[in-house]
Amino acid sequence: MASRYADNDREVFSDLGFSESGGLQPDSNQESYYLPDGSGLVYGKPLDADVKAVHGLTEEEEVFSESGDGDEKKTCISRVAAPFYKIVPYGGLASNCISFAANNLGGGIIAMPNSVRTSGVGMAIIYLLILNTLAIYAFRIFGIAIEKTKSRTFEETGTVLFGRGWGYFVGFIVALSCLGASIGFISAIGTLLKPIVLNAATSPHYLKTDNGIRLLTVIIWACAIVPIVLPKRINSIRYVSMGAFLMVVYFIICIVVHSCTNGLTKGIRGNMTFFTTGNQAIYGLSIFVFAYLCMGVTYSIYYEMKPKPSLGQLNRSVTITMTVCTVLYLMCGLFGYFDFGDDTKTSILLNFDPVHQPYMMVAYLGMLLKLVVSSAVNMIPLRNFIYHIIQWELDTVPYWKHCLVVFATTSIILIAGLFIPSVTVAFGLVGSICGGFIGFIFPALFWMYCGDWSLKTVGWFHYIMCHIMLFVGVIAVVFGTIATIYDSFIDV
């Protein structure tokens, strides 16, 4: 695997007219630039945008150009943009955390209060704490597999470790997960718009119908989702992701305040309980698993890390992100459930009246931004799988071809999302079927098949943890899927 990338690098340097060891001989009229890793000055034509990405140049660095005599000249755009690039540096710890959070927080947060209702308060807390621990451990295993195999995508890892054909299976599961999540986000946008339109006295009658909500969803898709799914790099949308994350925090603060001034003062009531039994208890598990299903962007974030990708940086990023997300999930789930009790809807958005509560209207608009960003981030693993099938390389494919593939894919997602009956159906199926594989089974198997894995080499802790991951993954796939289907289509 490593040799293949080395061959690719040699071909790129050869095509540009200079050698690996230092390029062409220096010439007074010859263009030059420094390699991104600071290893030296290279003579020859500057790398184009796609090849720059292969060798580590960020999109911010590409806005700076060098003249023939070596004097750096900044464009007007670069002068304005440069200070903003330093707020959240490209590939830094903050950027990595924001990117993981952009994929993690979204549909799971709006379904969390209902999941607490179905599972019970006590069981929900146990689920969240266990899944937080296992998610952090799963990312560590993914990082070990990436460093050992040197692969750049899930598909490559599957092919290297399991053999020809298995890469397609691994990629399909990851792509199916992102497809289901993206469809769920489109459906959630409609769910978010419904209370706003229905409660607004000046809303036209047509917009209050299902077709009217779909029309508004299409407009948001065209104006907001399409523009931010086009960039190739996940770090390119980190500032939008940061804004969306802050709006999620604001939304949860609104839930806490509303709960403290309304439902929380009524105490335990109705069927509120700490533990539930039967299919209802198991059904909540699939939503909780989905809430931690952000592994699909691991490779993209890892290889965009600065100054260089490392397992330590990955561990720090996911530990911070998962811990913060768990706290937010607990606050949203518990306070949302305490507020509405048995009347908690499948999406907490349906329980509020944003039209007559201005502070909640701001929160709704913020959650709209969050759903848009989550949909865009989930497109990254999905498009990677498509490129793997048609044998395209992300770094070298022409940008217009990239845009066509992404636009066609997101159009299909839009059509599917407009007709999903319930947001929890999509999230539940994705969380149970795909979440069990991606969050638990794949990480354990990846490390086991990397070689030199045994009780003697890894120790008791990792040996037991990997088998626990496999066991939990099977439970999530089998029982979670059955419970989701039963709750959504049979017990209605």
TrEMBL record:
Q: Which InterPro entries match?
A: AA_transpt_TM (IPR013057)
Which PANTHER family does this chain map to? AMINO ACID TRANSPORTER (PTHR22950), AMINO ACID TRANSPORTER PROTEIN (PTHR22950:SF702)
Q: Where in the cell is it found?
A: Membrane
Q: Which GO terms describe its molecular function?
A: L-amino acid transmembrane transporter activity
| Membrane-protein topology | Multi-pass membrane protein
Species this chain originates from: Angomonas deanei
One GO term of the cellular component aspect?
membrane
**Which protein, by its recorded name, is this?**
Transmembrane amino acid transporter protein, putative
Where in the numbering of this chain does the Amino acid transporter transmembrane domain appear?
101-485
Q: Which UniProt keywords apply?
A: Membrane, Transmembrane, Transmembrane helix
- The regions listed as transmembrane in this protein's record are 87-112, 124-146, 166-193, 213-230, 242-261, 281-302, 314-338, 358-378, 399-420, 426-448, 460-486
